[in-house]
């Protein structure tokens, strides 16, 4: 089984090339709501000049926070952009990788509705 943060690492370039500006904004909002990102982190990423650099910063920042945060990004991407998540071949197994106690606490284990 590949850990969620490893999956993000291997898909970094495809994520950066495929995610749109509106989806990035939705991801930032969703990750803020899930308490994966702080207000300051969202402001930092939002202040970056171009879309690809924002996407790069987001995936790197979340990946470095570990499997729970990485799973939250995958879940949120499945929710807000089924097309990109399908193209990246993201599956719920990366979402389910987090421990049950963390899923209960953060409510991060929602499965991608399209898979």
Automatic annotation (TrEMBL):
GO terms for cellular component: AIM2 inflammasome complex; IPAF inflammasome complex; NLRP3 inflammasome complex. Pfam families: CARD. Residues 1-92 form the CARD domain. Signal peptide: none annotated. GO terms for biological process: proteolysis; regulation of apoptotic process; regulation of inflammatory response. GO terms for molecular function: cysteine-type endopeptidase activity. PROSITE patterns: CARD. InterPro entries: CARD (IPR001315), DEATH-like_dom_sf (IPR011029), Pept_C14 (IPR002398). This is CARD domain-containing protein.
């Amino acid at each position: 089984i590949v850990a969620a943060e490893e999956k993000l690492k291997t898909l970094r370039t495809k994520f950066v090339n495929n995610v749109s500006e509106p989806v990035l904004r939705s991801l930032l909002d969703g990750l803020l709501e899930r308490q994966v990102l702080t207000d300051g982190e969202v402001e930092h990423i939002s202040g970056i000049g171009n879309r690809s650099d924002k996407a790069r910063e987001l995936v790197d920042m979340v990946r470095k926070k570990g499997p729970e945060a990485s799973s939250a990004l995958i879940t949120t991407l499945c929710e807000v952009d089924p097309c990109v998540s399908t193209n990246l071949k993201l599956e719920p197994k990366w979402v389910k990788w987090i421990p049950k106690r963390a899923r209960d606490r953060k409510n991060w284990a929602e499965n991608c509705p399209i898979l």
